[in-house]
Amino acid sequence: MVVFQVRRTRISERMRKLQELVPNMDKQTNTADMLDLAVEYIKGLQKQYKVLTDCRANCKCSAMQKPD
């Protein structure tokens, strides 16, 4: 029983940390829904990162040009 309690406590602590990181995740959300929200949030961040890195790679501004 103690092993299960320790495991549940660790999971609860990690879920609270996840709630702090992911916007719009409230404490009433069940664990499965919280994980779904986190996955979607991370996917959105990955898309934003790709867009920004693609824009930066295609930037023609003088600040981004490499010296010859």
Automatic annotation (TrEMBL):
PROSITE patterns: BHLH (PS50888)
A Pfam family that the UniProt record links to this protein: HLH
Keywords: DNA-binding, Nucleus, Transcription, Transcription regulation
UniProt cross-references to SUPFAM superfamilies, sorted A to Z: HLH, helix-loop-helix DNA-binding domain
GO molecular function, one term: DNA-binding transcription factor activity, RNA polymerase II-specific
Source superkingdom: Eukaryota
Protein's cellular compartments: Nucleus
The BHLH domain, residue ranges: 1-45
GO cellular component: a single term: nucleus
Name recorded for this polypeptide: BHLH domain-containing protein
Source organism: Solanum commersonii
